Amino acid sequence: MNKRLFLALALSLGVILLTQKIFPPMRPPIAPTTDSAAHDGANRPAASETPQAPSAAPQTTGPQTAARPQAGAIKSDTISLRTPLVGYRFSTTGAAPVDVELRQFLRQREHPEPVTLVHPGAPLLSYEMIAGPDTLRFDNINFDVDSSATAGRPALRFQGRSGGAPLSVAYTFAPDSYLVHVEGSIGAASGDRFVLIHLPNGLPTSEADTMDDQRHFAFAVKPVADDVHGLPFSKLDNPEVRIERGPLVWVASKNKYFVVALLVPKGATPFSAASFQGAPRVGKNVVAASATIAVPIGADGRFTFDLYTGPQEWRRLVALGRDFENVNPYGGFLRAIVQPFATIVMQVLLWMHDKLRLSYGWVLVIFGIVVRIALWPLNQSAMRTNLRMQRIQPELQAIQKKYRTDPEKMQQELFKLYSAHGMSALSPLYGCLPMLIPMPVLFALFFVFQNTIEFRGVPFLWLPDISRYDPWYILPIVMAASMFLLSWISLRNSPPNPQAQTMAYVFPVMMGVLFLRFPAGLNLYYAVQNIAALPQQWLIARERAQSTPATTTAPTAKSPRSARAP
């Protein structure tokens, strides 16, 4: 059996490699840039957030005259700065970023232009200073700009004055990163003072499925002494302001694949608080909500934070630390179970993708087969336990009927029966355990596919994008059919069970309908799991048939002819 198993694995790998050569992955057009990194169909760079040597020097252009809605009659110039990954635009009025363009990611809607994280006419950030009853809005002040490098890194430093007091905001960029370090100075003064930083009122959607992207609009918050928790826009559809008390490590606004976040630099004072307010629904979804973060100003008049504007690439988020990889808190009330499995699944899938150098479609196929093979011994033992349970079922029913009025005696007789057949009272539960073990992995994959940008735009065979549903509904049908075939084989040579027979017909249909609009990659994994389980189910069915005693008809009475003497 082991030789046949290894031979089957070798043949499967050969088929996968041959198909990879015959059907090379389709790649969407990529905007021509001289500093693009390696892509995997999803138009994404393969890089970590750990700083590396820049592959191209950032470019600064400007100033260009552009009006900002918040600035009113104040003349505003726009400063543009480009790194290999991001194109930024800053306004001299307010000293804040007004636009971010992700050069390595293309919109999946309309024209394939680079993804932007700001709605037209709206700024990315805006600043206010609160000092007691006084409020100072930065977008009422014009700043001078200095684009000289800081510590060998490109930087922009904005300097202005308010009532004779100097103001400055400095941005330092890492060319190979989506992270910007921000430091500001407002002059020393006594009393509690804060800079209020306003996040954008939701990110524009760049996905082909607009409604699905909007359903993922949410804020996420990481308190210092608590786990990450999300605030979907759908739960903020009322005029009440929700206050999140500090200290806070970071606050983020996100859609399905991209995120804008303010993070406390390592060693800096945490954020004091954050407030959130929703907007009325537009159709079924809430597409806008506001967030404001209170950043404390030190006694020396300085404040600081890190700004991340980029993709939710798992490795980048992990490299940032501060629990930022959990910007999507998976699992709801099952989070304590699902989140660790989601982390393990992501690590395994990324490792397999790197080592095998296959597309994520084939990685999911191999992953499904490996999981099924890993569970083979446990499934085999559980299935044989079920066989023994079926054999002793008549004796079980007889004991339950005989001692139904004496539970204590019933337990004693059941224990004797289990012991006589080499089983225990937990054997019925153990027989169901292998069915439950793969469920956390399946749940983890379900949530992983919701926000994993590594799968975005990745084609596989006839599928244009494994992160979206199968446009031909082939995989849901295959998944449901394989589930029905598994059930049909498992019922062969089994005692009649009308309830099990009904479920064998109804459950695959229900799952097929439920999975119609699920990501194609999830359907692919589930279908592969079912198909990989068919050989084991068939072997158990054959073993069941061989162990079932032949049915004989006992003679009841001798016929008159047989009763005659010879």
Question: Please, what is the average pLDDT?
Answer: 81
Radius of gyration: 31 Å
The CATH class of the domain at 123-327, by name, is Mainly Beta
Oligomeric grouping of the chains: single chain
Name the shape in a single word.
elongated
Distance between the termini: 55 Å
Strand runs, count: 19
Q: Tell me what the CATH architecture of the domain at 123-327 is.
A: Distorted Sandwich
Q: Supply the number of helical segments.
A: 14
Give the percentage of residues in beta strands. 15-25%
Poorly predicted runs are 1-9, 18-57, 62-73, 550-566
CATH topology of the domain at 123-327: Beta-galactosidase, Chain A, domain 5
Structural class: alpha+beta
In which range does the helix fraction lie? Answer: 25-40%
Major sheet: size, sense and barrel closure?
Answer: 14 strands, antiparallel
Describe the protein's architecture and organization.
With 566 residues, the protein is of the alpha+beta class. Among the domains are: 123-327, Beta-galactosidase, Chain A, domain 5 (Distorted Sandwich); 358-375 and 437-547, no CATH class; 382-434. Helix content is 36%, strand content 23%. The chain contains 14 helices and 19 strands. Strands 6, 7, 8, 9, 10, 11, 12, 13, 14, 15, 16, 17, 18 and 19 form a 14-stranded antiparallel sheet that branches. Strand 15 (242-254) and strand 16 form a beta hairpin. The two termini are 55 Å apart. Residues 1-9, 18-57, 62-73 and 550-566 have low confidence and may be disordered.
